[in-house]
Amino acid sequence: MTNSNKTKGFTLIELIMVTIILGILAAVAIPRYMTSITKAEEAAEDAVISSIRAGLETYATEELMKDGRPEHPVNPFEGLETKPAGHTTDATDANVDGEWTYNTTTTAITHMRNDNSVHHWDYNEGIHTAGAEALDTTPIGPRVAGASVVS
Predict the structure, then answer these.
(1) Whole-number Å distance between alpha carbons of 149 and 118
(2) In what order do the strands lie in the sheet with 117-123?
(3) For the whole model, what pTM was predicted?
(4) How confident is the model over 16-37, as pLDDT tens digits?
(5) Own/partner long-range contacts of 32-38 (Cβ < 8 Å, ≥24 apart)
């Protein structure tokens, strides 16, 4: 008769090896996961900014037809029929996850990501005086990464 207790369960070495393998897999997977989250957030931001640009172009065209001169609004969100999800009327940098604001001091569109980093795009409304060319063909500049906000 054989002792069946020796054949049941795992040895300590086997458990340690499995734990080490899982640790290695996690060390490889977590950075890739974080990179994919960052790229997804960038793609979502790009879509929102593209939508804002299109809305500003429509606004400028409507101003051209109405007044004979294309203009962008002072606040870029005022020229949009539909505001992006997370838009608030705060006049400072975004300070809540997913928030979109227009900072009137720095004249920048700002967005806070889930990792608490604030990114902004400079906005140039153009000149709004009679006889001056008001339309800037690129009123929204490229993305500028900001620092993380400590809550």
Answers:
(1) 7
(2) 100-103, 108-112, 117-123, 140-148
(3) 0.75
(4) 999 999 999 999 999 888 889 8
(5) 37/114, 38/115
